[in-house]
Write a structure and sequence with these properties.
The chain has 212 residues and is α/β, with parallel strands linked by helices. The protein has 6 helices and 6 strands. The strands form 2 sheets. The protein has a 4-stranded mixed beta sheet with strand order 3-2-4-5, covered by helices on one side. A two-stranded parallel sheet has the order 1-6. A hairpin with a 5-residue loop joins strand 2 and strand 3. It is elongated. The model has no long low-confidence stretch (mean pLDDT 83).
Length: 212
């Protein structure tokens, strides 16, 4: 008798489970991803051979643009909210809860304290065109230096949040200056830091050969 050959068909692969997993992952990343804030000022840092890595979180960054204007950015929404509560109360800036919330997510800023409320109330799409005069610094009288006051109180706010268990580390201070920034402008920042007893900080550079 002739041998019976079973009919062979094209194998079927059920992709339903894989599709479900793919959409679950896509949804997860969409819901948890955070948009990187637009940089208020672009800093082209000088190059060096240093390979020291800065922490991804817990940094307070002082940026100096090519014109010598000073900008601040600090990590941590809890810390920023605590900080602006103190600043608003001490200097009677008249900010409401919504304005404080905006500041806590604002990112880098570089305006005198008296114009901060105006910056906050500028629509996000227009903030890129808001005139940034830089944060005032006074190395002759540290009590009149807005830069010194911001940094000092930001460190206090971060320490307070650490005690409350909302952050794990104290701030790492970093200075980010453009390679074309006049040295006296950078020196004013360094003098300000030493005047408020910040004797340990990092200078941000790019790797030689164009590597970050």
């Amino acid at each position: 008798m002739p041998k019976h050959k079973p009919k062979r068909g094209t194998p079927l692969i059920d992709m339903t489970a894989m599709t479900d997993v793919a959409f679950l992952l896509l949804t997860f990343f969409m819901l948890t991803a955070k948009m990187k804030p637009t940089e208020t000022v672009v800093i082209d840092t000088p190059s060096s051979i240093s390979e020291t890595k800065l922490p991804d979180a817990g940094t307070l960054t002082v940026s100096v643009d090519p014109e010598g204007k000073i900008f601040l950015d600090m990590a941590g929404q809890h810390t920023r909210m605590s900080l602006i509560n103190d600043i608003n109360s001490r200097f009677q800036l008249g900010m409401n809860d919504q304005e404080k919330l905006i500041f806590s997510n604002l990112g880098m800023f570089g305006v005198p304290r008296a114009r901060l409320k105006q910056l906050i109330n500028t629509p996000p799409a227009e903030r890129g065109h808001f005139p940034m005069d830089g944060i005032p610094v006074d190395t002759s009288d540290i009590n009149k230096s807005e830069l010194a006051d911001w940094i000092h109180n930001a460190r206090i706010a971060q320490f307070r949040m650490k005690q409350e268990g909302k952050v794990t580390d104290e701030y790492v201070i970093v200075v980010k200056a453009d390679k074309n920034t006049p040295y006296p402008a950078v020196q004013r920042v360094i003098n300000t830091l030493t005047d408020i007893n910040v004797n340990k900080f990092n200078l941000i550079t790019s790797m030689e050969g164009g590597k970050e």
